[in-house]
């Protein structure tokens, strides 16, 4: 297993644990003590992944190739894909492993209810949840980029 694959697995665990801690803190008040450090750690992970993608030519080229493939022969190339798209949607086969797809779906869709409840549960829970969602989205981008760069090499 390459170092990059280990990094991505570790970041998947960090996003999942961040979401779990956010949920636990709603029901178990003592868990709120670790919300700020956890948010800083998960946010730092998101920043690290973003810089990793910017610094890697493989990721940049893969994301560019995915962009071209997503646009395809569409006469309106700026049109967004639907959530139900079988390739690029929320559970699209090109956007991640099954574990990543489920985690990303839970975290991204959960942003709205968590944000609506922020007056009752606290803004710290929202920040941690959103940071975990960003890590999951970045992992999906990394997956797309790597699958595009591997497909181009064949």
Textual characterization of the structure:
The protein is mostly helical and 154 residues long. The protein has one domain. Helices cover 75% and strands 0% of the residues. It is built from 6 helices and no strands. The chain has helices at residues 3-27, 35-55, 57-71, 98-116, 118-121, 123-153. The chain is globular, with a radius of gyration of 17 Å.
Helix-strand blueprint:
Layout: H1 3-27, H2 35-55, H3 57-71, H4 98-116, H5 118-121, H6 123-153
**Radius of gyration, CA atoms, in whole angstroms:** 17 Å
The low-confidence runs, each spanning 5 or more residues with pLDDT under 50, are none
Q: Overall pLDDT, averaged?
A: 88
Shape: globular
String of helices and strands: HHHHHH
The helix content, as a percent range, equals over 70%
Distance between the termini: 20 Å
Short recap of the structure:
By secondary structure, the chain is mainly alpha-helical. The protein has six helices and no strands.
Provide key terms for this protein:
about 150 residues; mainly alpha; globular
């Amino acid at each position: 297993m390459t170092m990059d694959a280990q990094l991505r697995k570790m970041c998947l665990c960090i996003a999942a644990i961040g979401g779990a801690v956010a949920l636990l803190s709603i029901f178990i008040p003592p868990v709120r003590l670790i919300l700020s450090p956890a948010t800083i750690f998960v946010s730092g992970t998101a920043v690290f992944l973003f810089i990793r993608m910017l610094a890697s030519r493989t990721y940049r080229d893969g994301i560019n190739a995915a962009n071209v493939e997503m646009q395809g022969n569409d006469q309106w190339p700026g049109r967004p894909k639907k959530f139900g798209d079988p390739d690029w949607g929320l559970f699209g086969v090109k956007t991640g492993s099954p574990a990543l797809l489920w985690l990303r779906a839970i975290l991204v869709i959960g942003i709205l209810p968590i944000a609506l409840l922020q007056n009752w549960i606290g803004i710290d829970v929202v920040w941690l949840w959103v940071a975990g969602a960003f890590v999951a989205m970045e992992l999906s981008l990394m997956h797309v980029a790597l699958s595009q760069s591997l497909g181009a090499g064949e």
